[in-house]
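Researcher: Go.
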Amino acid sequence: MEGKNKSNDATLDFQSQLWAAADKLRGHMDASEYKHVVLGLVFLKYISDSFEELHTILNTKEYADPEDRDEYLAQNVFWLPKEARWSFL
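Model: Structure:
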């Protein structure tokens, strides 16, 4: 049971850190406006994860170009320029 408590403590600590970061980011912004920022970040994280997964696969293929937009469009994955990727941000 001791390991389970450590996991729960880590989860609670992580959640409190996320909450503190969200409060800091929100600043003086009204909560109804803040949702647009958060939803945008969640969407960016989702498409960035999909992009990175396909990017890794394309890096292993001999004739694939991981920086070719058409490779991603063919797989219905958003193509992200380097400056818009989660890893860059």
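Model: Helices lie at 2-26, 31-60, 69-74.
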